[in-house]
Write a structure and sequence with these properties.
This protein is mainly alpha-helical. The protein folds into two domains: 48 residues; 67 residues, no CATH class. Helix content is 66%, strand content 0%. The chain has six helices and no strands. Helix 1 packs antiparallel against helix 2, helix 4 packs across helix 5 and helix 4 packs parallel to helix 6. The radius of gyration is 28 Å and the shape is rod-shaped.
């Protein structure tokens, strides 16, 4: 529902509840007003759940990492390269080799310091291995 009408159903529910309480001696009007209040309250709840927007517009992978950050990782240096190596290891354990031991710190550091073109070749080869294993 559009923003100007966001409070329509809760407003109707509130007014109908007030009418149902004020006409207490007349059950026909009270029951009709209470029915309108419950229906409007239900529609307000349904509208709020139906039109909820996600907290973040960033799509997420099964590994809880933002998809659109991968380009940023490749542009920010060795720290990002280390994060990519660790992510590839984690995916490898999840997809193909659950028994794979943790990578040695020295090996991770060596891979993180590779020049960009060599690092991209390494990532492509690891991704190819992961695709073949899955």
């Amino acid at each position: 529902m559009n923003a100007p009408f966001r409070w329509t159903f809760p407003g109707i529910a509130g007014i109908a509840t007030l009418v149902a309480l004020l006409v207490g001696a007349n059950p026909d009007i009270a029951i009709a007003a209470a029915t309108v209040a419950v229906a409007s309250g239900g529609l307000a709840l349904w509208d709020s759940v139906r039109s909820r927007t996600p907290a973040s517009g960033t799509p997420r992978t099964g590994y809880s990492l933002p998809v659109d950050m991968s380009e940023l990782w490749f542009h920010t240096g060795a720290t990002s390269q280390e994060a990519i190596v660790l992510l590839l290891d984690r995916i490898d354990r999840a997809v193909a080799h659950p028994e794979m031991p943790a990578r040695d710190r020295d090996e991770t550091a060596r891979l993180s310091r590779l020049p960009r073109d060599q690092f991209l070749s390494y990532v492509e080869s690891r991704l190819s291995e992961l695709e073949a294993a899955s």
